[in-house]
């Protein structure tokens, strides 16, 4: 009878329900949830460059076309030795730009030579100075070679010289800036109340002559600076004479188009 009671008590204790079994399912669920978020994070951080190279390589492989892009798959003929390196393809846009730049530089060099010849008589008299700079080719012409004192109408001899310059400029397509400059001696008359009006009128006279020689007006600019940009000291007669001038600048489209021809002074 006692043995029966012990067996019954043991069987009763074995039948007690385990309330912690839910932890197993919960742990499995948390593990799967963590794996899901890891996969989602990996998918969201795809390297677009590598993905694009891979997709292009796969397309090229299925089309049986060699792909020479950097890092892409290359089809190799087993009968030929494998290439040691892949030479980059030239940039066609850069090649065209460099070629156009060389053409413009050569054109500017020829233009400088022709202007030297056209202004040779005034250069011999010391009334013309040519110089090259970062902005292009600049021609400084003494006002005494172009105008009477206090006047903005071109002298007859100046018309012939500038007419030759205009014919040379008409063959080019560079922008041309004409600047009028004076000394610091005040001028006051009914036509020109100050040196500003005089310098601007002289620049405009040169521009009008260039237009008459078939230079495209859209390429021309006339500006008057009065005595604000002197070349020499206005305290001496020689300095004031240098400052009274008309500056003609043939602008280069890029800073590295400076001409390398000898320029007379």
How would you characterize this protein structure?
It is a single chain. With 265 residues, this protein is an alpha+beta fold. The protein folds into two domains: 27-78, no CATH class; 99-251, 2-Layer Sandwich (60s Ribosomal Protein L30, Chain: A), CATH 3.30.1330.60. Helices cover 47% and strands 12% of the residues. The chain has helices spanning 2-14, 22-44, 48-63, 92-118, 120-124, 156-170, 195-212, 237-243; strands spanning 128-133, 136-142, 176-181, 220-226, 245-251. The chain has a five-stranded mixed beta sheet with strand order 1-2-5-3-4. Helix 4 packs antiparallel against helix 6 (156-170) and helix 6 packs across helix 7. The protein is elongated and about 120 Å long. The N and C termini lie far apart (139 Å).
Fill in the keyword field for this structure:
265 residues, alpha+beta, 60s Ribosomal Protein L30, Chain: A, 2 domains, 5-stranded mixed β-sheet, 47% helix, 12% strand
């Amino acid at each position: 009878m006692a043995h029966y009671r012990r067996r019954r008590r043991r069987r009763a204790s074995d039948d007690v329900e385990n309330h912690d079994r839910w932890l197993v399912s919960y742990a499995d669920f948390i593990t799967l949830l963590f794996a899901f978020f890891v996969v989602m994070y990996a998918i969201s951080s795809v390297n677009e460059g590598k993905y694009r190279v891979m997709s292009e390589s796969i397309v090229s492989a299925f089309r049986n076309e060699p792909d020479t892009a950097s890092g892409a798959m290359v089809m190799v003929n087993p009968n030929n030795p494998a290439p040691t390196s892949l030479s980059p393809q030239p940039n066609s846009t850069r090649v065209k730009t460099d070629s156009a730049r060389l053409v413009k530089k050569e054109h500017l060099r020829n233009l400088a030579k022709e202007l030297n010849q056209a202004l040779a008589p005034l250069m011999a008299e010391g009334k013309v100075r040519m110089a090259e700079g970062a902005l292009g080719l600049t021609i400084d012409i003494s006002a005494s070679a172009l105008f009477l004192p206090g006047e903005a109408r071109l002298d007859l001899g100046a018309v012939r010289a500038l007419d030759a310059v205009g014919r040379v400029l008409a063959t080019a397509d560079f922008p041309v800036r004409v600047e009028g400059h004076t000394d610091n001696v005040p001028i006051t008359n009914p036509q020109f109340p100050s040196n500003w009006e005089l310098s601007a009128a002289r620049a405009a006279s040169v521009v009008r002559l260039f237009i008459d020689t078939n230079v495209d007006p859209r390429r021309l600019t006339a500006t008057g600076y009065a005595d604000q940009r002197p070349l020499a000291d206005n305290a001496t007669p020689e300095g004031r004479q240098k400052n009274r001038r008309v500056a003609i600048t043939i602008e280069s489209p890029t800073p590295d188009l400076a001409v390398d021809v000898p320029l007379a002074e």
